[in-house]
Amino acid sequence: MTSGPAPDHHLLKRLHDIASAERTVQHLRRYFGLDPGPGEVPYTGSRFEHLAGGGDRPETANCFTADDLIAVERLSVRVPQELILELLEGSLGSHLSNLLSEVPTDLDLADADVSLLQQGSSAHAAYDALRARHGLGRTRVAKLLARKRPRLLPVYDSVVGCAAGYPDSWWCALHSVLRADNQALHRAYAGLRSDAGLPETVSVLRVIDVAVWMRHHDDHDSKRPTKCVWR
C-alpha cells in the first residue's frame, strides 16, 4: 500500500475536537431535520446523498444524471447550463463515465490507498477534466464527484476549507488524518452518525463535512477568511 503524506496534526486535533463536542450530535440532527425546532426545516443539503436513491446506486454509479445535478445544487452551487448538457449528452459525460468505472463505489476513504486520490489516478483525472470545463472551481467539482463516490471523495467548500486551513488537496489531507491512529477519527465520526440516528447511507465523509460546516459557518467570513473565529 502506498504511503500518503503525514497527517496534519492541527487538522487532526480540530476534527477530534468537533467529534468530542457535545453539540455535534445536535448539529447533525438539526441539519438532517431529525430535531426540527418551531418553524425549522431540514437544511437544503440534507437530501444530497439520498435524492433518487443516491449517485452511487448501481444502475447510475458511473454516469452523471439529472438527479445528480439537482442533488449538487441542493448544496448551494449552480451547475452551468452548458456543462449540464455536456455531462448528460456530450463527450465529457462519456469520458467521466469511463473514469468513474475505475473508481470503487464500496470503499471508504480511510480504507483507500492514497494512490486512488493522487495525480495519475482515475479520480484525479475526473477532477482535472471537470476543472478544465467552464472555469469550474474546486467546490463545484468536489461536490459533483462526492455525489458519485460519497464514501471515497469528500465534499469541499470555502467554509470547510477555511476550517481545515485550506489544504492543497482536501482529499489527501482528510485521507491522512482518517488513517492516523488506527483510523480513530473514522471510527469517531461513524459513532457520531449512529448517535445522531443517521443511516449508514450517510457516509462518514458526509458526517465530517456537515459537522465541520455546522461548527464553522456562522463564524466564517468569505471576504476576510483570516478574521474567521474557530471555536
Relevant terms:
single chain, 231 residues, mainly alpha, 10 helices
What would you say this structure looks like, in words?
It is a single chain. This protein is mainly α and 231 residues long. The protein has one domain. The chain is built from ten helices and no strands. The chain has helices at 9-20, 23-31, 66-73, 81-89, 91-100, 122-131, 138-148, 158-164, 170-195, 204-216. Helix 3 (66-73) packs across helix 7 and helix 5 (91-100) runs antiparallel to helix 6 (122-131). The longest helix has 26 residues, at 170-195. The mean pLDDT is 93.
Number of DSSP helices? 10
Number of strand segments: 0
Low-confidence stretches: none
Order of SSEs, N→C? HHHHHHHHHH
**Arithmetic mean pLDDT:** 93
SSE class = mainly alpha
Fraction of residues in helix: 40-55%
Strand percentage, roughly?
under 5%
Overall tally of structural domains: 1
Largest sheet: none
The outline comes out as: globular
Task: Report how far apart the termini are.
Answer: 36 Å
The whole-angstrom Rg is: 17 Å
Topology diagram in text:
Blueprint: H1 9-20, H2 23-31, H3 66-73, H4 81-89, H5 91-100, H6 122-131, H7 138-148, H8 158-164, H9 170-195, H10 204-216
Helix pairs in contact: 1-9, 2-10, 3-7, 4-5, 5-6, 6-7, 9-10
Summarize the structure.
This protein is mainly alpha-helical and 231 residues long. 50% of the residues lie in helices and 0% in strands.
